[in-house]
Amino acid sequence: MSEGGGGVREHMLNAVRRRNDALDPNPAPLREMASGHPAHKPMGSAGRGRGPSCSLTPKGGVPSQGLQSNGNMLERILEKPKLVVVEEPKDRGMRFRYECEGRSAGSILGASSTDNNKTQPTIEIQGPIDHIKKVTVTVSLVTKDYPHRPHPHCLVGKDCEAGSGICVVGFNPHTARRHSFANLGIQCVRRRELDVSLQKRRNQNIDPFKTGNTKGIEDMDMNAVRLCFECVLEWDDGRKDSLCPVISKPIYDKKATTTSELKICQLNLNKGSCRGKTEIYMLCDKVQKGLAVRGNSLT
């Protein structure tokens, strides 16, 4: 019986070895289990978690520095160009003129403009510009309040096609990332021509925020507008991509009493007794509704 049992055991071990050889080209660990004796390890090998066997090199042989470099490259690839308004328009001080006045509509100045240093509204293409051949920017007027519908007032200037009411410029971002809009003015439309002006915008496909025709002109503020910049990128291979529309801060009509800059023309006294009975006269230009005068104590 012992000899028969030993033969069966040896037969089973041989079958296990043949199966392991077929599954694993290096069957030493399984052979150790079958034989019950550990295999001999070379002197240079180290145990788990010791010596040179502990390495930060990931599977595939790429070092950690290489992974960080690949991550930075991926971030650069995923980063997209964007349009930014780097010089906002001056919010007050400009008059919206009618075409029938026969005078120039003037120029929109930049927010940081001074008497000695004139600036204009300026945009900039930020981010990677590799393989971008041309940038085309369309500027139109939109309402001050959300959802920023197309405004019936018109833009006029050297980069505005006659009667279009919009401004279109193109430039190479590799030559200059920034573009300033000089000689760009605002021309207001008479009330009976508002619908015609808005229909012209629809024919031009000027509706940056896809507001449609849900509302009329009754609730539009005719004394305040925003500049809206729509940018199209043209690539070397002929593709074209549109960036999200960008709007400026509001621009208010100088001649409107509700939006004009408050100015004190004359003041007879700049102080009075705390006991009262001191009459102070203050003359202002275009006083707005809800105006309040507050006095402060100097002590």
TrEMBL record:
It is found in: Nucleus. Residues 78-258 form the RHD domain. Keywords: Activator, Nucleus, Transcription, Transcription regulation. GO terms for biological process: canonical NF-kappaB signal transduction; cellular response to stress; inflammatory response; innate immune response; nervous system development; non-canonical NF-kappaB signal transduction; positive regulation of transcription by RNA polymerase II; response to cytokine. One of its GO terms (molecular function) is RNA polymerase II cis-regulatory region sequence-specific DNA binding. Residues 21-69 are annotated as: Disordered. The keyword rRNA-binding does not apply. Its main location: nucleus. GO terms for cellular component: cytoplasm; nucleus. This is RHD domain-containing protein.
